[in-house]
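Re: the multi-chain job from yesterday

Posting the exact lines I submitted so nobody has to dig through the queue logs.
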Amino acid sequence: MTPAIEARSLVKVFGATRAVDGLDLHVPRGSVYGLLGPNGAGKTTTIRMLATLLNLDGGSARVLGHDVVREAAAVRSRVSLTGQFASIDEDLTGRENLVLVARLLGLGWRGARERTDELLAAFDLSEAAGRRVRTFSGGMKRRMDIAASLVVTPELLFLDEPTTGLDPRSRSQVWDIVRAIAAQGATVLLTTQYLDEADRLADRLAVIDHGRVIAEGRSRELKRSVGGSTLHIRIQDPEERPRAEAVLRRVLGPEVQNGADEDHLSAIVPDDARVAAALSELAGAGVRLAEFSMGQPTLDEVFFALTGRPAEDQSRTPDGEAEEEK
Amino acid sequence: MESESLKGVLATTTRPPAPSRLSASLTMGWRAMLKIKHVPFQLFDVTVFPLMMTLLFTFLFGGALAGSTREYVQFLIPGILVQAILLITVYTGIGINTDIKKGLFDRFRSLPIWQPAPLVGALLGDVARYSIAGLMVVGLGFFLGFRPGAGVGGVLLALVLVLILAFALSWVWMVVGMMVENPESVMTSSFLVLFPLTFVSNIFVDPATMPAWLQSVVAVNPVTHLTSASRGFMHGGLQWVDVGLVLLASALITAVFAPLALRMYRRER
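And the result, structure tokens for all chains:
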């Protein structure tokens, strides 16, 4: 069977910026695939090219076996896109929005209304359905938006940062929805800035940096390439931070970062068994701890491990940054 | 979240055939009607200005300009109808600009529909919007003593001709709506065109007393011919050449801006 997505050397240039710069992607059918990267890394541009909304400036892509340029209509009739910002009409009610999309997908009036009621019930939106979307909460808008993408169950669903800006409860609702979609056998391509989200949802993921894939694989493999989990410590006396850093480097290896707070340090742990040793060495060196915790590596840490630099916002050019500081 | 009903909803996989061009456009038109229903303000804030002008001009200058306010209303209403509807065309551009910003066009463009349907549907909704605005103007006029000599039929014919030029101008604002940053810019840039276009005409006064150079500007303004035709339809004494010139201007504007709007719509952003 042809893969859900097969992209080779995708390029997209906006003015002087190469937003996507030779990106390769292979997404098998029936999987949840995550595109992970900081702001401005090229995730949204990639999705918009694959969903036929942007032309390619280079390379080629086939979605569900159809070329995104030459067979755009065939692609459009098999995929759904839920963009980064709720693409629903805020002046209309929730119900009207779904009926609108259903009609545009070719359902009759009655079929559109029935399908709308099913979706509203499934997405826990029945009560609010008669209200204008303008009055909905962020989580409700996002659920509306995803519901609109599922009026006809697509073979491939693009979800662009589906949980950005949502509260934890809405976030876990969206996760449930993504899992349910995947359980039905549809392919999902989602972008995210959060490693834990990619980890929870995606079977495989690609880390994007400056418009290229810099790492690809199962999230377990990826984390192993980072070195596994991360030890976070807070020390009682910030003056002891250089000493703590030295101890951590000696016991755990070179990947030690000073946090933004002056009492915080984090270190990637190559082997969980070494954590106990690290803590006792710290005590032996006279570093007093305020707290410590073990965590999954964050996107920052993955980035640091893969590129040797932090995952800064790539959407601003150096000039732009200078502008904003003025 | 009802996970069982969620699964049930997702299990339905039959995809209906894509809607016809007409059906997709009518659905988009239905959307425009819903917007009028939910946000009636969009009708009033632009229409209120011509209505205010009607009252101002009628009572302040009517007597001086035409001998009596009642006389002036007969002269003014066919012209104010033109101004009211032409001003409201701006909302076509504002609507499109908002849709792009909100990401709605992304959804429409990712659907397997006839691609121009959102634009055509918006225009269909505009017919309703323009007609309502027109009826408001004529209604107020009637209240002030406006009595068209040619009756309802004449008023309707005038309305149809105004709608034709309004349609043509809508394409212009669509292009503007796709070009500029935000809805406010659509408003500003279009009013820079529409205010001179509607004021430097024969809507408010007979151009006979204007300086010669201004008269020649007024004479080539399509709004002048539209207003003359509107008066002709409503009161009699129609010059067909005015109708012909309005149709010609509408055809020219549409021929330039409709293909441009469609091309810009297809273009990525």
